[in-house]
Amino acid sequence: MLLKRMLRVVATAGVLSVVLGLGACSMPGSGNAGASDGASSSSSSSSESSSYEAELKQALQSASSDFERGVLERAVKAGKISESDYREANEKYQECMAAKGDDVEFDTDQSTGLMQEHMNTDDNYDSAKANEDSMACAKGTNLQIRDLYERMVQNPSNADEIELVVGCLKRRKLVPDSFTKQDYLTEMGKPEGSSKLDTSSDAFSQCLANPSK
Asked: Which of 2, 64, 75, 178 suits 134 as a labelling partner, its CA being 20 to 30 A distant?
């Protein structure tokens, strides 16, 4: 499959799949106070949506099919890609792959609601053909939609994703409090086995997958 689909966590590229849980708190009070809280909540939601405005518009400009354009035009107006459009995009991609003889399936991660792609292979599996098919099928179906939707779900405020991971590593005592984003990039850029980071540990993997925990 496409490297970007299989290696969804690329530590040295600054594109890490993370989950940022955001909660809203409201204080009890009078009717006027409640209205104020509602306005604040609406403002926060609007801010989160607008954080991806540039990316949505850029994706729309790169759309290569009527389907993609329709999805992204709706997303620009709403401030986000809808789950139904995300799922339909992946279904169209899957149908295209099936037509090319590639047995692709999607499983839904129950903790995030995101669709995880995997391919059923046999002794005749041709990785070069599969990659070529994947690139061809993604164009016009989920190429401009899938990764952007998943980033919006996992990181709604569009925060610096590496900083989030570094924060998780600190909370789990995997790195000292003085550890910085640059330290992380330096360590991850070292040859395999020479980094000070225990990248094979479950705790490290969990920070990459969901640094908010």
From this structure: 75
